[in-house]
């Protein structure tokens, strides 16, 4: 059987995997994982090193049943890390794992290489408390993951029946994956497909390759939309990069590179105003928010910041402001295109592609639409306070608490980091003035050797000043901004919880309305008014339908919220780790420089 | 103890002085001055006395007021123990307690205690160095008041009061206000002193500036350290990490202090050298005045012998000051250069070592974070950040 054709485009060459797998025990097959390049897949270089994505396991659901097919579909996870597309249960292809997609982390590639394919996928994904060098998934042999029923995964993914959403429970989906290989076999098919699909969606990554055409005969139709993730090595296929934000005009150019078939050309640039970004957000949140999607929020308006820029103040604070905004907008767009559902939205495509966008009027603060929005927000706040939801699913309650706690924490952290940035800038200034003073002192010194040493000290301090400035910038852009982003995102997460609550409310309201109608009917029955009775009966039917509809809506929204939250957690962890590593690597670099600077003092020689 | 600022002190076994411990009550510090000597001028070979900061000032001022020592650079008096910084912080901490988490408060408190301890250690060191400078000076170490200071086992406050009444700080006050004008105004006959004058005046203003700038730099570093502590407290760092962080934090501020302390000490030392120049300049002025007076007396044919004698005295005094001054200033120069060199090297080495330590810790944490679960990633960041102090 031809399960699927999977085109995986990696940086080097295209790989075509054709699996004719049988359902049997393929899962465990991981064995061939590392060393072999799997089935006739030409691996791209590194593949052999990583067994990780034992693919077999790939998605929880996928593996299960027989259909290796599902496996093959190499769930998105795989995609994330490697080109290796779906993996044949038997011959998984080793993706070229890079823990952090774009991290050039040599730090981590190394270990990978050295480890035999043993490493369970977990390591790839890092998120779970998996130690890179620890026993993989508790499985002695990686490949035998299949044997391990939920060993590693915190939550056994194996619950079938469940929409697979539960499988997401564990913070890291991939954790599941790893385990999946094993348990998948035992899983019920039902769950599989669902989860699989879900997985695919989740893994739709910015690195998705447009040219992925999955024609599956499997029930995983969602796959079609799936894009394979290219290894981080190559540029993401859909990279929305907010390039140059010019100081002169409050505009940002959005540069996109894509190979997605839905777009007309491969690389294109458009100019967008800040209000356009806000307009996009408004549209997306109106359309998708109520359905429980977490719509990524853009950076806020800043009257002070923009005024400075407009006034033409050419100092570091305005450049900082523009740079911060540019970065925030870029990350915003990347989150939007990363989202498997949002990327489908025609508004997004229009935003990315269309030459001229109609001016987004309703984002102007004082416009009519603006006022309306303000009012809506206010009523929302009030209703939020009065809605006391009977939470049937404790998961939501817990999650909400987590989110709120995280929000508080990170707001505090943001303040502290901003203070850190201010102090570091002060340090930089003070170091500069000290450097000058030391130079003067050196010139006043009459002992030649000491004079020379003091001058050198002045030079070193000068360099330190530069270093401190860079470090301040690093603190700002890699750390403070990230926290700000995260706080905004948390707000969006809470928004989705709110929408769920609204859906619940609507359902409850419909139920009470239905109840009222029934009471009316009863009364009319007793009062014996046949014509009105007829009307009442019709209304009851109408409301019964509504109740059913709203209940279904609520279920759907709940499922979406749940899925979204899990995805959010996964993404966040991944991103944060990546950023932190980057930040730390830059710290490392500065330490090296400090070492160099002070070594250059070489006072022993001069004196 | 790190005798960083000065070198070659306390090497002569005939008179060894140190301050082995001190007590801090509120802001009053009581130093225990311990002496070991082989000199017969002392009653016992080894003894200790309690002394306050005011006693040190009394000793210094007495030496300054002694005419015989006019040609010497009197070691600068140790500055008053300044707990203002930690005290202010403690005040702020108390005010902000409500807004902080328990962890944050505890951490800041610990940091405050450490800072307090650092100030305390510093002041002990500075007082110790003062005494050691005296003990290693061939002339000053024989001073009677110095001996009293070291030996007298009673309270010195009575003597302090008497001294104040006697001198009223006259000489000191005069010096403070008039020296610049006088020193620059007097016509210099000696090249050596001409050069020294120019050099010291210029150098003093520059080192004063450098000291102030270095202090600002140190303050910024401290602020950053505090920020990191608060960040780490917010993210709940565990105890083991805290101790590591504290060590790191202390090391970092120590190396900053080294530079600042060095500059500050020599700023004061140069002021003492300037004081010497001033005294000599005044002696020169006196001598010139006495010449004029002698001429006038000769003109009037009145009181000539007195005028001649006065003139001779002035000349002698001036010559003595010049001779001893030249010796003092030359050795001072050598001492300063050596101390600077030693301290700058130590500082650079500390910076390098610290950078190495931080690098390896960072590397470790990078690996750690990779392996850590998502709830701990923030913990990891903090660690790294705190290393940045």
Could you explain the architecture of this structure?
Helix content of chain A is 56%, strand content 6%. Chain A is mainly alpha-helical and 607 residues long. In chain A, the strands form 3 sheets. In chain A, strands 5-6-7 form a 3-stranded antiparallel β-sheet. A two-stranded antiparallel sheet of chain A has the order 1-2. In chain A, strands 3-4 form a two-stranded antiparallel sheet. In chain A, strand 1 and strand 2 form a beta hairpin. Chain A is elongated, with a radius of gyration of 28 Å. The N and C termini of chain A lie far apart (82 Å). Chain B has helices at residues 53-65, 84-96, 102-135, 144-151, 157-167, 170-185, 191-234, 239-300, 304-371, 377-387, and strands at 15-25, 28-37, 46-52. Chain B is mostly helical. In chain B, helix 1 runs parallel beside helix 5 (157-167) and helix 2 packs antiparallel against helix 3. Chain B has 2 domains: 1-155, Phox-like domain (PX Domain), CATH 3.30.1520; 205-388, Substrate Binding Domain Of Dnak, Chain:A, Domain 2. The two termini of chain B are 23 Å apart. The longest helix of chain B has 68 residues, at 304-371. The model of chain B is unreliable at 237-248 (pLDDT under 50). Helix content of chain B is 72%, strand content 7%. Chain B is built from 10 helices and 3 strands, in the order E-E-E-H-H-H-H-H-H-H-H-H-H. The chains are: A mainly alpha (607), B mainly alpha (389). Chain B: This is PX domain-containing protein. Chain B: One of its GO terms (molecular function) is phosphatidylinositol binding. Chain B: Pfam families: PX, Vps5. Chain B: InterPro entries: AH/BAR_dom_sf, PX_dom, PX_dom_sf, SNX5/SNX6/SNX32, Vps5_C. Chain B: Belongs to the sorting nexin family.
């Amino acid at each position: 059987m031809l399960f699927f054709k999977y085109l995986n485009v990696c940086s080097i060459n295209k790989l075509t995997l054709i699996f004719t797998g049988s359902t049997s025990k393929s899962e465990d097959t991981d064995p061939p994982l590392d060393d072999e390049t799997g089935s006739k897949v030409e691996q791209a270089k590194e593949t052999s090193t990583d067994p990780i994505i034992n693919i077999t396991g790939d998605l929880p659901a996928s593996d299960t049943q027989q259909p290796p097919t599902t496996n093959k579909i190499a769930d998105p996870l795989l995609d994330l890390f490697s080109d290796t597309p779906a993996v044949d249960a038997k011959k998984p292809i080793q993706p070229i794992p890079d823990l952090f997609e774009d991290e050039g982390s040599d730090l981590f590639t190394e270990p990978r290489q050295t480890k035999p394919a043993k490493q369970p996928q977990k390591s790839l994904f890092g998120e779970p408390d998996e130690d890179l060098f620890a026993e993989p998934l508790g499985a002695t042999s990686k490949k035998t993951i299949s044997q391990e029923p939920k060993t590693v995964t915190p939550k056994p993914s194996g619950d079938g029946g469940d929409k697979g959403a539960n499988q997401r429970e564990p913070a890291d989906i991939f954790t599941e994956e790893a385990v999946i290989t094993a348990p998948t076999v035992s899983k019920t098919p039902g769950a599989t497909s669902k989860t699989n699909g879900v997985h695919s969606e989740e893994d739709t990554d910015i690195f998705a390759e447009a040219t992925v055409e999955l024609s599956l005969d499997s029930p995983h139709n969602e796959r079609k939309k799936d894009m394979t993730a290219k290894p981080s090595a190559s540029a993401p296929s859909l990279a929305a990069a907010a390039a140059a934000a010019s100081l002169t005009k409050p505009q940002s150019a959005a540069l996109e590179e894509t190979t997605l078939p839905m777009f007309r050309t491969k690389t294109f640039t458009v100019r967008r105003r800040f209000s356009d970004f806000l307009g996009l957000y408004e549209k997306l949140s109106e359309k998708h928010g109520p359905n429980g999607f977490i719509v990524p929020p853009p950076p806020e308006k800043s009257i002070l910041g923009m005024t400075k820029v407009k006034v033409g103040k050419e100092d570091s604070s305005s450049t900082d402001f523009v740079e911060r905004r540019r970065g925030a907008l870029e990350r915003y767009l990347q989150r939007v295109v990363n989202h498997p559902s949002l990327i489908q939205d025609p508004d997004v495509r229009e935003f990315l592609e269309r030459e001229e966008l109609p001016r987004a009027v309703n984002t102007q603060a004082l416009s009519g639409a603006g006022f309306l929005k303000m009012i809506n927000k206010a009523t929302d706040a009030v209703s939020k306070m009065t809605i006391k939801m009977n939470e049937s699913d404790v998961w939501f309650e817990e999650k909400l608490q987590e989110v709120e706690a995280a929000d508080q924490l990170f707001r505090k952290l943001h303040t502290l980091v901003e203070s850190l940035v201010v102090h570091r800038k002060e340090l930089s200034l003070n170091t500069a003035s000290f450097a000058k003073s030391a130079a003067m002192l050196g010139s006043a010194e009459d002992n030649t050797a000491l004079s020379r040493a003091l001058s050198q000290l002045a030079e070193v301090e000068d360099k330190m000043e530069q270093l401190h400035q860079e470090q301040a910038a690093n603190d700002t852009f890699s750390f403070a901004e990230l926290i700000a982003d995260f706080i905004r995102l948390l707000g969006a997460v809470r928004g989705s919880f709110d929408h769920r609550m609204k859906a619940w409310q609507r359902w409850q309201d419909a139920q009470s309305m239905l109840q009222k109608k029934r009471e009316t009917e009863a009364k009319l029955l007793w009062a014996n008014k046949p014509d009105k009775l007829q009307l009442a009966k019709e209304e009851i039917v109408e409301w019964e339908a509504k109740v059913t509809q709203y209940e279904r809506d609520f279920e759907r929204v709940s499922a979406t919220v749940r899925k979204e939250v899990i995805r959010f957690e996964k993404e966040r962890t991944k991103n944060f780790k990546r950023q932190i590593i980057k930040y730390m690597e830059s710290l490392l670099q500065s330490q090296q420089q400090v070492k160099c600077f002070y070594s250059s003092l070489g006072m022993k020689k001069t004196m | 103890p790190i005798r960083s600022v000065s070198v070659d002190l306390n090497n002569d076994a005939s008179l060894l002085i140190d301050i082995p411990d001190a007590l801090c009550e509120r802001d009053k510090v009581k130093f225990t001055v311990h002496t070991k000597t082989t000199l017969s001028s002392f009653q016992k070979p080894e003894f200790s006395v309690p002394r306050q900061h005011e006693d040190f000032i009394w000793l210094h001022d007495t030496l300054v007021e002694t005419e015989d020592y006019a040609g010497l650079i009197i070691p600068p008096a140790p500055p008053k123990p300044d707990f203002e910084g930690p005290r202010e912080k403690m005040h702020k901490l108390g005010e902000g307690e409500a807004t902080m988490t328990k962890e944050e408060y505890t951490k800041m408190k610990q940091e405050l205690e450490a800072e307090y301890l650092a100030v305390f250690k510093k002041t002990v060191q500075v007082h110790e160095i003062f005494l050691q400078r005296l003990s290693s000076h061939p002339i000053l170490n024989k001073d009677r008041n110095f001996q009293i200071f070291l030996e007298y086992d009673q309270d010195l406050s009575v003597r302090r009061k008497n001294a104040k009444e006697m001198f009223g700080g006259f000489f000191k006050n005069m010096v403070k206000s008039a020296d610049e004008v006088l020193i620059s105004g007097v016509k210099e006959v000696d090249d050596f002193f001409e050069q020294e004058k120019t050099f010291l005046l210029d150098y003093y203003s520059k080192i004063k500036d450098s000291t102030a700038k270095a202090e600002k730099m140190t303050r910024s570093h401290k602020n950053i350290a505090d920020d990191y502590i608060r960040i780490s407290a917010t993210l709940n760092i565990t105890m083991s990490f805290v101790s590591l962080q504290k060590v790191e934090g202390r090391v970092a501020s120590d190396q900053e202090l080294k530079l600042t302390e060095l500059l500050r000490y020599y700023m004061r030392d140069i002021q003492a050298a300037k004081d010497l120049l001033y005294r000599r300049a005044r002696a020169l002025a006196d001598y010139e005045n006495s010449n004029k007076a002698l001429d006038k007396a000769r003109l009037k044919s009145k009181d000539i012998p007195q005028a001649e004698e006065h003139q001779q005295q002035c000349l002698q005094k001036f010559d003595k000051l010049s001779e001893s001054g030249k010796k003092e200033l030359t050795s001072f120069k050598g001492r300063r250069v050596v101390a600077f060199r030693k301290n700058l090297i130590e500082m650079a080495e500390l910076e390098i070592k610290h950078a190495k330590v931080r690098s390896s810790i960072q590397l470790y944490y990078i690996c750690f974070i990779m392996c850590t679960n998502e709830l701990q990633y923030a913990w990891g960041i903090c660690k790294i950040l705190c290393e940045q102090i």
